[in-house]
Request: fold
Amino acid sequence: MEPEKKIPVRWSKGQSGNPAGRPQSSRQRIAERLIADITDKWETHGSAVLEHLACNEPAKFAQIAYGLVPKDVFLSVAQQPPGNLSPESWQALTGVLDAIQAAKVGADVEPAAIFQFLEHCLRAEFAKPVSPAEPALALAAPVPRCPV
Reply:
C-alpha cells in the first residue's frame, strides 16, 4: 500500500496567505512623503508657478502639460469634408461649384434653382427606362427650366 500524497493547501478565492500584507519598504515611505510635500507646495504656489511658466517658459509649460496627459489618450486631427464625402467626391463637388461660378450665372438666379436644374438633367440623362408592365408615375413637381 502506498502512502497518501499530501495535497498542497490552496487558498480560497479572496483569501490571502499573508493577511498583514507585504511590509512597506523605505522607498515607498519616501515616495509617499515626497508626494505629500509636493501636494502641500502645489496647493500654496501651484497657480503662480503655472502662470510664470505659461508666460516666461511656454515650452516647459507645454512639456509638463504633455507629460500629464495619459498615454492611452490619442488625439487625431483629421480634416473631414462635410457629409462624410470622400476627398475625391468633395473635389468633384467643388469642381461643379467652380464651373457654376465660371459660367457667371446671373445674380438673380438662386443657387437652389441651379441645383434643381442639375438634378433634373442628371435624372433625365441617367434615368432607368420604365417597362410597360410598371404603372406610370405622375410627376410631383413641374420640370424646372434652365435658369440661364
About this structure: The first helix runs from residue 26 to 56. The chain has a mean pLDDT of 78. The CA atoms of residues 54 and 80 lie 32 Å apart. The chain is about 50% helix and 0% strand.
